[in-house]
Amino acid sequence: MTSDNNTKEKQPMTIHHRLKPRSLLARITLYFALFLVLFIFAIWLAIPPVANWYLTDFYKQQNRLFSADDISVNFFPPSVHLEKVRVSHEESTELELNRLDIQVSVAPLFKKTAYISDARIDGLFVYASQSQNAWNIAGLNIPLNSSNESNNTQDSGSEISKEEHTQPQKPSEQQAQENPSDGSMAWRLVVPKFEFNNSQFKIHNLLNDNITDSIAIKYLQVEDLQNQGLDVSGNVALDLNFNESNLALKSNIQYLQFLADIKLNSLDINAEIKDFLHFLPKEYRPLSGNINTSLQGNIKQVGATEFEVSLPSVDMNLNKLSADVPNAVAQLDTVNVRLTNSNISNTSNGELSATGILSTSLEKLDATFEDNKVQTQSFNLEVNQFALNKEGNAISLTVPSIELKNNNLQYENAKTKVSNNSVHLQLGNLVATIAEDKTLKLSTSLSSELNQSSLALDQLHLNNDRMAFDIEQLEVVQSDDKLNAKTAQTKVSNTHFILTESENVLASVGQVDLDLPTLRYSGTAYAATLAHLRLADIELSNLKDAPPLTVLDSLTIQDVNAVETHAEIKSIDLKGLRAHLLLDENRQLINLATLPAANDASDQNSTAHESTTNSSSANNRTNANNSEKLDNSTEPNKNTDLNNDETNSNKFALRLHEFSLSDNSYIQILDKSVEPDLDSTIDIDQLTATHIDSKDPNSVTHVLLKARNGKYSTIDLNADIQPFANKLTMQSKLAIRETELPPYSPYIAQALGYRIDSGQMDMDLDLNADKGQLEGNTHLVFREFDLGGRQESSKVVQTGAMPLNIAVGVLKDGQGNIELDIPLEGDVDNPEFKWTGFLMLPIKQALYKASASYLMQTFVPYANVISIAQIAGEQILKIRVEPLEFSFQQGQILPEQHSYLDQLNALMTDKPDSQVKACGIAVLGDLGESDELTIAEPEQQNTYLNGLANERANALKDYLVGKGIASNRIFVCAPQIDRDDDAKPRVALKF
Predict the structure, then answer these.
(1) Which of these, 329, 453, 565, 633, is most buried using a 10 Å CB contact count?
(2) In this predicted model, what pLDDT tens digit does every residue of 192-227 receive, in sequence order?
């Protein structure tokens, strides 16, 4: 029993000894765990004061004050909490944090996931300043001396990274780089929500005019943020201010497996330009304005080089821009750019496409660039649903419609000024392509309207009230330096076009209407069809103090077909032509406006003055020189044997079927280079020319003219002429009726040798030309035709010579008419041929021969009164009417004068149609030796002499009337005084 008991007693002891090591281990573990807990607890308790003490001491060394209401670090779960943290320097805050909370979940860490369940920063303020050698950020000085090497390293690293990024790798290769070969998975970051609110960063730059920038973050919220390697996804909301500029963003970002999907729910930027000026050079800082941008869209990357951008709405506004930078000063009210429903995509094979609707507007621009100034009230551009595609090197653009509007545009520089009240331009169905071979093709329809346009070049001004043009189906192809173009229809309408110089109108057109059905151009070849062109209310050269040179009611051109070698026109019709040809003393057009000379104005003026002086001295307003200027000499054709086809092969040919001029047209000629001034008007009732063909030298043009000169004179021309033959060939009939001749006397004075005092002319001219040889006949009828004498002396009275102009009177029939038939012939190729001499010399010879023969036989019985002598063959017939001489102071007829007066009475009796003009003449010898007269005033002397001269003329008339001559056949001239020393008292007679 004892042994059993002993055995029983020993067993518990064995068990006790077996359990003792385990109990010790448990105790050790328990103690270690307790120690660890106590240690961590101690650390947890120590961290806030230690951190506070350390940071206080650290910032104290930086001469800064640090304070914090709460610094907390938790381990279960891991989290950090900061509250009311502040760093200050001399009562200025450099760092302030209202609150910071960061909490990490522990369990996901075992799955290599950092799950930040709480992340919040509120009320962060950081002040940073830059000096020449260091940055001070939140009270911490960061030297810049050692930054160069790091910058170089960073630059080289960035260049390497850029090269790596510029060579995109396949996703599998990049994943292989990111995921090691051991198959370990990259860490994953998950943040359900991150908030960064009410924070501000101030950056003071001592190197840049002590500028301080402020970056204020109202809120930055990131939700559902997930990141693993390069994969990122999440929602971002940001509201940030930079100085006074604001950026607001709401977006969803997904970048998974190298495929990006970024949704921009909204992006709003409101920027003040002045907030960014200090980043620019000083000379570009005088800028101000506001930029406002609003954006919505989606950006997708569907491959390494494939992407899609969808932008439902993009609005960009620039407001109140003011700039005063080198070479430019500008003021701008607003610029608005709106892009809607736009899409941009790029495929893996490089195909690029872009579509959308673009709207642009501009208000109140005033800009000056050097000496160029631009102003406009408004500008609007609408591009509807454009589509741009690029495949390889081929590019295509299609736009259903483009509309441009502009109001009050002005451009000005030192020499040019352009203004336009409004422009409205529309392009429809625009298609433009650039092929692989660089061939450009363009097709569109165009409609435009311009109102109140003007262009000024120095003193030259061009104004246009309204211009509108429409082009349908315009097609342009440019290839190999050749341009091909064609249109289906072109219409132009223009209202009141006017070109002026100072106060003079050079040209003006009231209305232009053009209808161009087709136009084709290919290199140097072109083809055009003009259905209708009408210009109305045309004025040319309308000077301030003179009537316009030309006025035309309308010019109409119908049915034109033109190619590069020739053109064919159905008709040209002019209505209401009013031409005023005003010639000055030098036979220069008074009312011809000229363009102002750009250079050498003084030289031109001096040359013009010299020319005028020489012209004045050469043209003493004499009949001979004036007539000479009308001569038109024709040089002989030296190439008479040239083939017509060779001559015209390189010339542009024109064929006109009909030309007409009608509707109250006239030409006024005022010539001040002759005495008296010519003022004549030719009214054109009808002028037509048919079948004009410059290509065919043998073509015959028919010309028909019906005109009037004054109320009663008529002109009728009917001619067939070959205008493009090498030598003049024509058949013509000209009939002129009741033309008053005196106005044209100065022009024919040289040919006839005498002035025309009076007379009417009827002429029937049949003139033919065969290869330059003229042949024809002129039938002339002169009514009341009187030729006057020449002024060959400065004496008041020329007596004693009776020229041919008096003798011509004897040719008149009982009705006072002269009728002549004159043959005409000549060679226009003769260098001495002159049209004036060709027409007038035969008339002169016919008149001379007939009158000379008659006078020689008629006036011999009256030798005491009339003497006749022929001088220089047929050139001068000297007919002298002897005066009735008186003695000094004699006023009445004496018996010794009866013989002369009886022959004069017989002459007038034999010639009952003759009339005589008696001009009494007194001389200085009539004053005698009377003291009363010799000492009298000149006015009294003239009164006496004029009375005596008048008494002598009346005495002659009384004598003839007493002999039975009718008093109405004798005319008494105004008394005259001859002051020559050898002058004799007399009565001069003129028949």
Answers:
(1) 453
(2) 999 999 999 988 876 667 788 899 999 999 999 898
